[in-house]
Write a structure and sequence with these properties.
The complex is a heterodimer of chains A (about 325) and B (about 375).
Chain A: H1 12-21, H2 24-30, H3 36-45, E1 51-56, E2 77-80, E3 98-105, E4 109-117, E5 134-141, E6 158-164, H4 165-173, H5 178-181, H6 214-217, E7 231-236, E8 243-244, E9 251-257, E10 260-268, E11 284-292, E12 304-305, E13 309-313
Parallel strand pairs in A: 1-3, 1-13
Antiparallel strand pairs in A: 2-3, 3-4, 4-10, 5-6, 5-11, 6-7, 7-8, 9-10, 11-12, 11-13
Chain B: E1 3-6, E2 11-14, E3 25-31, H1 40-49, E4 62-66, H2 75-83, E5 88-89, E6 92-93, H3 115-118, E7 148-152, H4 161-165, E8 171-173, E9 180-182, H5 192-196, E10 202-204, E11 211-213, H6 218-221, H7 228-231, E12 238-243, H8 254-261, E13 266-267, E14 278-281, H9 289-296, H10 300-311, H11 316-323, E15 334-338, E16 341-345, E17 351-356, E18 367-368, E19 373-374
Parallel strand pairs in B: 3-14
Antiparallel strand pairs in B: 1-2, 3-12, 4-7, 5-6, 8-9, 10-11, 13-14, 15-16, 16-17, 18-19
């Protein structure tokens, strides 16, 4: 961990030491100023790791409705966010101090609600230096080695639900094409689209002309203009191993209001992919919440996250 | 951090991955003395590869003027300023590479340019290095005031900044020819590669929201055909080939001959530590030797002398190999200069092309009997 370069999972001893001092490990590596007084202050307001109960409700869990009244049935938990100090590139300080989380399930779908402060809504990734706001829920087997915290291990894959603000906007307002960032753009000819000035994506792009948009034509989920959900379902077996799962049945919705994001997301309890975590009522799972701030150019490992915690899924009716 | 051998800086250096060289390394030599900045290479590449929506600003191939031009704006000045003054001890680099001087928490030294910085690819074009203050200006060699053209593509580095920075190994180097590619299925648009390529030859696509780069026209290269930017070069400044490490240099291989035997072709900013594989013959008219050393390394002055020596007729072999530059659209793997002719061969020794070192001249009679008229010109 003291070296840059090859991503490594951090040792248990380092993580335990880190848990005890709450991100002191991150301080040592990054040389940041996350001193002890900051830690004491944060633990007065927020838990250091999530210990969340997913409450059973007899109605459809509001996985796509962050403003649903049903969320009152789940107890909110404020959890501290720390910088990411295990895998290079690091993010020594978190963008925001804490995230408030809740969970509900209805026996078929498990849903999460995340709320966190973000002064600026960042929902575009068109310009070269634009990064979007996002949040994620990591679920894995419990109990687990602390190595699970850094995106799972080969023996214990983790499932990640990843909500992205730019995917949300693509759904809410249509694909955010080039003209959104460059309203006066003018280009004479995009071969092979003869005669179409300022062609629109996806309407003017049948499949046979997508070869000049390689990300789209090879099926990269990041490049698909038509999004069916703002939440991507992924699995990981360690740092740098994130994979988009074959069945994309996670749902969600994020709303930004008055400097705060409120994001609901969920997935079916029953896994539909081989390496996906299946959720059974009455059991516990490893849990991490993560937040990315576009304003801070967060992406990938540049993130603010909770420590590894526990999700207790209430037994059904 | 693993240690790898970088012959261009004459020592081992830090790199996130172990040394692993491809079976052969695709590379090229550009003779800056012949470039006229016609931008045909730029047009060829753009038409072929970057004429899609989201790629408008991308020039996988660009030609910039030195000293005042750059694309994106000041990319080289910025990385050299971040690196700070560094030193060489002869041909050994005693300074730090970009992987040896990362800011805390980063893999390498780098920055992401803004869209605005890509918007002026011709800024500084044809601008001379200093004001012409004399009333009468005599052209002498080297020039008192100068500029030159620097054509650039991805260098398909042996130790790429982009590949070493991707946290999810979405960039790879092909084992068969060392061409560096961004996996369009695997990239998630983090832009760590854009940040850490000091040459700024990985580009973020506005519409697909992932990154892409020069592919060295690998579909053509696989068939033994030179990349489009090379084939279409009007000035015949370019030659595409496979470059070996110094210990395996083959004097019959045009690129090896230029890089290792004559040492007239030099890497671009070798001090950055990436072992780039596009080599440059430095401009012989530039009087500022320090500038040339900064751009091409400590071998710059000697390379200029070697080239001048060939211009003066003392090195037919060097002249011959340069005459072969894109004289054929096939990749020349071997060459021979004999009796005033340069021959290019493929890997099976089949002759691809022959070029005379001196263009033959014919003078026709003034009166053409066939049409019973005097010729307007005779040569």
């Amino acid at each position: 961990m003291e070296e840059q370069g090859e991503p490594r999972t951090i040792s248990r001893r380092q993580i335990v030491k880190g848990l005890a001092a709450t991100a002191a490990v991150g301080v040592a590596v990054a040389g940041g100023a996350y001193g002890l007084t900051e830690l004491v202050k944060s633990t007065e307001k927020a838990r250091s790791e999530p210990d969340l109960r997913s409450v059973y409700i007899d109605e459809p869990a509001p996985a796509s409705d962050p403003e649903s009244g049903l969320w009152r049935k789940a107890s909110a938990q404020k959890v501290a966010l720390v910088g990411q100090a295990a895998i290079v590139p690091l993010k020594p300080q978190p963008s925001v101090e804490d995230v408030t989380v809740r969970s509900l399930h209805d026996g078929k779908t498990i849903a999460f609600l995340l709320e966190w402060e973000d002064a600026e809504k960042d929902e575009h990734t068109i310009k070269i230096d634009q990064f979007r706001d996002a949040c994620g829920v990591l679920l894995g087997p419990f109990p687990a080695s602390v190595a699970l915290w850094t995106m799972g291990t080969p023996d214990s894959p983790v499932t990640i639900l990843h909500w992205k603000a730019d995917w949300q906007l693509d759904i809410d307002a249509g694909f955010q094409d080039l003209e959104v960032a460059f309203p006066n753009v003018s280009f004479d000819f995009y071969p092979p689209l003869v005669g179409i000035v300022n062609p629109k994506i996806p309407d003017d792009y049948p499949e046979e002309v997508r070869n000049r948009l390689p990300g789209w034509s090879v099926g990269n989920p990041i490049s698909q203009p038509v999004k069916t959900s703002p939440v991507e379902k992924l699995r990981a077996i360690g740092p740098g191993t994130l994979e988009h799962l074959d069945t994309q049945n996670a749902t969600g919705k994020g709303i930004w209001k008055n400097g705060k994001w409120k994001v609901a997301m969920g997935k079916p309890l029953q896994a539909t992919d081989a390496e996906e975590t299946s959720i059974e009522p009455g059991k516990s799972y490893s849990l991490v919440f993560t937040v990315w701030s576009g304003l801070d150019t967060d992406r990938g490992s540049r993130k603010s996250l909770t420590m590894l915690g526990q999700l207790e899924v209430a037994a059904g009716a | 951090m693993p240690k790898v051998n970088n012959w261009q800086i004459g020592r081992e250096m830090d790199y996130p991955y172990e040394e692993s060289r491809p079976q052969k390394q695709a590379g090229a030599v550009f003779d800056t003395n012949k470039c006229i900045a016609c931008q045909t290479c730029t047009m060829a590449c753009k038409t072929t590869w970057t004429s899609g929506k989201g790629q408008e600003y991308m020039f996988w191939n660009n030609v910039e003027s030195k000293p005042w031009g750059s694309y994106p704006l000041a990319y080289d000045i910025k990385i050299l300023e971040k690196l700070g003054p560094q030193t060489w001890d002869g041909s050994t680099y005693t300074g730090k590479t970009i992987f040896e001087s990362p800011p805390a928490g980063e893999r390498a030294l780098g920055f992401i340019p803004s869209d605005l910085e890509y918007a002026y690819p011709n800024r500084g074009e044809d601008e001379i290095d200093s004001l012409m203050t004399e009333d009468t200006y005599y052209l002498r060699m080297p020039h008192d005031t100068w500029f030159f053209y620097l054509a650039r593509v991805c260098n398909h580095c042996t130790y790429p900044g982009c590949l070493g920075s991707c946290p999810r190994t979405a960039i790879y180097k092909r084992p068969e020819d060392g061409i560096v590619l961004v996996d369009q299925e695997r990239c998630r648009g983090y832009r760590e590669c854009v940040k850490n390529c000091p040459y700024k030859k990985v580009f973020y696509n506005h519409v697909t929201r992932i990154s892409e780069k020069c592919v060295f026209c690998y579909p053509a290269v696989e068939k033994g055909i030179q990349p489009r930017c090379m084939r279409t070069c009007i000035g015949k400044i370019r030659t595409f080939g496979y470059v070996s490490t110094p210990d395996k240099a083959d004097p019959d291989n045009p690129v090896d001959f230029l890089v290792h035997v004559r040492k007239v072709a030099l890497p671009l900013m070798p001090q950055l530590g990436l072992e780039p594989n596009v080599y440059y013959i430095p401009p012989i008219h530039v009087g500022n030797k320090r500038f040339l050393r900064m751009m091409f390394g400590p071998g710059a002055e000697a390379a200029v002398q070697t080239y001048i020596n060939a211009m003066e007729g003392n090195d037919p072999e060097l002249l011959g190999v340069l005459m072969l530059n894109v004289s054929t659209d096939h990749i020349i793997r071997k060459f021979k200069v004999r009796d005033g002719t340069a021959f290019g061969f493929d890997e099976n020794d089949a002759e691809l092309v022959r070029v005379p070192l001196k263009e033959p001249t014919m003078v026709r009679p003034f009166f053409d009997e066939n049409v019973n008229a005097y010729r307007y010109n005779v040569t």
